[in-house]
Amino acid sequence: MADTFEILVVGSGIAGLSFALKSAELGHRVAIVTKKHQAESNTNYAQGGIAVVTSAADDFDLHVRDTLIAGDGLCNETVVRRIVEEGPKRVKELIELGLKFTHNEEGSYSLGKEGGHSQRRILHVADMTGKAIETALLSAVNGHSKIKTFEHSFVIDLITLKKLEKEGTHDRVVGAYVLDVISGKVRTLSARAVMLASGGAGHIYPFTTNPSIATGDGIAMACRAGVPVLNMEFMQFHPTTLFANSPKRFLISEAVRGEGAILRNLDGELFMDAYDDRAELAPRDIVARAIDAEMKKSGAPHLWLDIAHKESSYLKKRFPSIFQTCLDQGIDISKDWVPVVPAAHYLCGGVVTNLEAETPLPGLYACGEVACTGLHGANRLASNSLLEALVMAKNGAESVDRYIGNSQSYDSGLPEWVDGEMSDPDERVVISHNWEELRKAMWDYVGIVRSTKRLKRAMTRIENLSLEINEYYWNFKVEPRLLELRNLLLVSELVVRCALMRKESRGLHCTLDYPDKNELLSDSVLEPEELPELSR
Description:
Layout: E1 3-10, H1 14-25, E2 30-33, E3 50-51, H2 60-70, H3 77-96, E4 122-123, H4 129-142, E5 147-150, E6 153-160, E7 173-180, E8 186-196, H5 217-224, E9 229-230, E10 235-242, H6 254-258, E11 262-264, H7 284-298, E12 303-306, H8 312-318, H9 320-328, E13 338-347, E14 350-352, E15 364-366, E16 371-372, H10 384-406, H11 429-445, H12 452-475, H13 480-501, E17 525-526
Parallel strand pairs: 1-2, 1-8, 2-5, 8-15, 14-16
Antiparallel strand pairs: 3-4, 6-7, 7-8, 9-14, 9-17, 10-13, 11-12, 12-13
Helix pairs in contact: 1-4, 1-10, 2-3, 3-10, 5-13, 8-9, 11-12, 11-13, 12-13
């Protein structure tokens, strides 16, 4: 017997929690499904803040202009303007939930500045903004009687009418199969609507700022359900992460450069002026490519970020988490230069949605990093992501409310998940080996600078790995690591296929074979039917 909810939310970051809260306030019974603990999300690790117009020196037109410039010609200006203009209202709602942004000594907001922004407009809570937002939203969600949270639960796939082979009906989402990670049992959840808010896919690469949950699950399950994806080639590499032996890269927020930090090569020389007039405050795609070029030129394993000219007391107050983390590594940022390297950070493409968070599949919605609204274009402007999540969560909640009011529930009952005679995996080394091989191929061939030959090499490896993991999936009981690898392979394929479609260099996509922009090219739309059957 399926558990029945009106709305199923996949993910517990700012997008999922905001949407769930607003949907519950509209009277709907909501289930939140999250892979690990409810506080584990990309939001929780966001340092910078929310880009929003609040000061008299700023205005909507400036914020829109900065976003369009960073997006390098691929932003949807209508989307950009609506999200920018609705931002202050959504931030006000966060403040009403108890979120306290950092103020200066005069009592006004302490506004940060990051790359690509012409004005100071980043609201922040020191350098732990995401954690503060997550805490405020979780407190409200956990206190709401209409919201139930399933922790340590992994959504395997969406259930659609097409998959149930109901002839003569319009395809739509009617639920999902969810693995209880603790018990190993698969639960069937029935839902009138599903909101994908599962975050990004940083772990298609071995070096990323993302938490371990960011394995592209929402994008993969949407694709398998027949939903197109858009602009998957635009993976943003954050220019400055702490260089360490661990694959997990600690983020050194762009706000540090906004407060005056400069980049140096290993010889201590400044170099950013040679790449862009904005130097360290150029958009992330430009800074990341500059660092990549300098490292390749000299063979250096890292470069330096220098903010040692700032007082220790100021740095401890403005960047407490960064200061302490670096200190734990033996680096006093008030005295020492910080070794930094780029790492995969944010996926600007994703599941196709409109401004109401609707996908082309009725009943399926997407919000946050999993979605592609047209806001980010070819390169996300720093700190626009939390803004987008807040605005789109509100839009999505109202859209789902209308959909439920105008559609009939599916009352025929959903089939239970059947493992049949499948056994427990007997060669888990296959999973770990293929996991590492995939991510190495993506880093080597689909990184900051690409070429057609490199992309084709990556595709060959992805196709071979997909054949092996597809066979593994259908012959053994499901487990989280296998499900994640299955999703990572599909998302990696989407990234490479979109990259091969874009025969130009624009924003985050830089290819040696097509170094110039091609103004005849626009978005890279990939329909699921264009993929091999096993990918879907």
